[in-house]
Amino acid sequence: MRQVPMISFARYGALFRVPDLKAIAIASVIGRLPIGIAGLAIMLMMQAATGSFADSGIATAGYIGGLAALAPLVGRRIDRHGPRGMLTLSMLIHPAAMAGLIVCALLHAPKPLLGLVAFVAGASYPPITVCMRTLLRQLLQDDERLQAAYSLESVLIETIFIAGPMLVALFVAMAHPAAAVAFAALCAVLGTWMFLRSPAMHRWKLEPPRHSSLLGPLTTPGFVPLLCVTLFYCAGFGLFEIGVTGYAAENGAPWLAGVMLGLASVGSASGALAYGSRTWSWPLKRQYVVALACMGAGCVVLSLSAHGLVFALVSVLAGLAMSPPLIMQSMLVARIARAEHATEAFTWSTTALLAGVGLGIAAGGAILESRASSAVFLAAGMLALLACAIAAVLIRTQRAPSAQENLPNKAS
Question: What is the domain partition of the chain in residue ranges?
Answer without folding.
Answer: 20-199+215-404
